[in-house]
Amino acid sequence: MNALHHGLRARTVVLPGENREDFDQILAGLQAQYQPQTPAEQYLVDQAAIAQWKLVRAEVFEADCYAEAKSANARAAIFGRMTQFQCRLERAYFKAYKELDRIKTAREKQSEQPKQPEQSQGKKQKYEHPPKLRVTVVNPSTGESEVLYRAENGKPVKGFSDASPSSSPQDVPQTEAPKPPR
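User: That's the sequence. What structure does it adopt?
Assistant: Structure tokens below.
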């Protein structure tokens, strides 16, 4: 019967005689502020809205009871019970608020970070070829070098100039590498 008295334990959020649009406005404000993206986040937004709504209900009920109560003892009893309900509702609200704020801050921090390579997001990373690549082997006993492979932008070429990355591929005569000191 307690829920019918003050509605603080009611299973229905908006009781008869209350304005559903007022509750929807509270919920919409929290939705806009936190933009829940998962069912768990939506649950937290709902819990914060319900707690905030019931806090308003508790204040209205307390004011009505004080107006009707004649004795100081009756007012003290009402104040004691209402304080317990309000404390529980405030804890529920601030617990949801704190978690939603933590999630929002983490989401904002993540969006500020530079994008990670696609590979770390579960997609294949596109490999970019170096503009010029020359694979050379050096004979350790003679110090002579031999070019095994040349490529420009990922395509094999016969030769290219090392002078500029924008120059066209051309055959470059091979020079002997300096001999290492012994």
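The longest helix spans residues 72-112.
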